[in-house]
Amino acid sequence: MSTAVTRPASGATDLDTLKGVGPAMRERLERLGLQAAEDLLFHLPLRYQDRTRVTPIAGLRAGHEAVVEGEVTAADVIQGRRRSLLVRLRDGSGILSLRFFHFSQAQTTQFARGTRLRLFGEARSGSTGLEMYHPEYRLLKDDTGKEVEETLTPVYPTTEGLAQPRLRALIRQAFEHLDQGSLALEELIPESLRSRFRLPALRESLDYLHFPPPDAPLETLAEGHHPAQRRLALEELLAHQLSLYRIRLRIQEDAAPALPASGGLATRFLTQLPFSLTGAQRRVLSEISADITQTIPMLRLVQGDVGSGKTVVAAMAMLQAVSGGYQAALMAPTELLAEQHYKSLKRWFEPLGIEVAWLSGKLKGKARLDAKTRISEGHARVVAGTHALFQEDVHFHRLGLAVIDEQHRFGVHQRLALRQKGEVSGTTPHQLIMTATPIPRTLAMSAYADLDVSVIDELPPGRTPVKTIAVSDERRGEVTERIRNACLEGRQVYWVCTLIEESEALTCQAAEVTRDTLTEALPEFQVGLVHGRMKAQEKAEVMNAFRDGEVDLLVATTVIEVGVDVPNASLMIIENPERLGLAQLHQLRGRVGRGTVESFCVLLYHPPLSDTSRERLAVLRDSSDGFRIAERDLELRGPGEVLGTRQTGLVGMKIADLTRDRDLLDPVRGLTRAMLDQTPESVDPLIRRWLGEAAGQYGQV
Ligand code: ADP
Ligand code: MG
Q: How far is the CA of 312 from the centre of ligand 1 (A)?
């Protein structure tokens, strides 16, 4: 992957120190994410061409690129369906045709009989046998052939207006500057660590990849398994890990309040719950509880499948903060979810005499002012809300613990912003991050290098897994009947419309049409609609009506993905599920199956399905284990998709591929520690090399 990354300005050599780089060229290079001369060294080939030897015509194979040398025997302009210039070329072994659809008058005379040519192109089978279309060619004037290339020829990712030969020359120039010492390339992984992990040196790796010898294993290179590639992939992974790790260190430089386990209050809380905690909930809780008795700020991620009961775990942690004399805040990504949390927390905490406040963007005027005062004066010990909680004008009296629900909607920046909220009491709050996105463990370790991870790997007893079936949308009629039956039994139903061509507007329109069709087909039932373009107020009204059972069938876009809890809903239809990731589908499906009746999820796909789509839907049908599903999703789609683009630190990897290079993750973790201990001065340059200036700034917030 070669996504453009913002590149360093400081300490780097300007692009225009290279000959031939003016404003226009600079602009093109920048389009490739190349901002300094050093960056050219790290712009790696996509693949290679073998121009190191001449292949006899008889040795050519269709679909393969090769250098050929021969003598022109004929050149004719053919007036076929498309006018073309057909040149016949002969060497000692056979005859090859060259075809030019675009050609000049000069070319027709250039290919006189007897002219010797050296050319490079891809052979294909055509009407005259083996042919090459528009090969690169050169006339051989003397009868001695010019020398062939000494190394394989790299083919680089490039951009309009920048042809391969030009880019190759610029890169070669950068290496010359390196040899002359006007460009520096620092080896940032010390020899001791390199030899422990058997890694080639940086310069050696780059030389190899830009100018591989003729006998280089092309297949290994194409698969990305060559030691030179692995060395760079490892360095890149290391840079990402270090940048996340550094955020952790920065946060943990400050002191957090020590919050002793809450004893009596916890017992009272637990006895009022209508259920007892699962073993997994208790285990995770003891991990959190131990963390927050320390003065080192906790940075812990709790992963738990939909419905695994994360909220109550968070509540127990919040209770520990409150009994230690501090405040606790819970932030959720949507108004709806925040409000749901607010209600749960109120229900649990008010009987214990703990005041719970609510703050969201929706809250205006006096109500907002009141809430802010209750928070800043410390009357409200527990606060639930949206992002609004962490806006500048909100001051906490003594914030001891911040809980962030559904982490995948937030990034590193919000985590850092939290650090400031302890300002008044001079401490940094502990952070607990909860996510239902079941990120495979290997990936979680890298994506969240700055967090400790706890997993709630058990669902509360008595849940029946949602039965999932895939149905072609040609059978819509049957599905409508199914909805009617469920509603007749007093159950409620979700109908989910997925994103159309990345367009929210189109998706919302489609949802409106679906609502109308279903209203017509099911006149005896109440059909509601929520989508992203409705006002928060309207959305909340519809959702509340659904929760209260006034709406039987809720047509929705994926806005309902997160957290909604309506136990009476027992059927979900997901239209065009092939458009969504497995993890997201699993999340959606988790909205049903929350009550005691058997629940169903119908994946209403549009045929024909591709093999991958078919396989993906089968995974969902056969498994209800979020982690297993995520592992499969990772294999089928790759990590970028699984984590979503919001996950900082993982998107935009240039060389590393988390699926292919999974086995490097363990050594990278070892190296991360080793570098921080042994060569801390190399950490900054390494991060800057791979993540650019932007990443350097994370650490300074
Ligand atoms: P999620 O992990 O998806 O956020 P919630 O915290 O919303 O899950 O919990 C889902 C439902 O399960 C809630 O109604 C909650 O009260 C209930 N619940 C949580 N823990 C248990 C338990 N140990 N036994 C039974 N029900 C539980
Ligand atoms: Mg939840």
A: 7
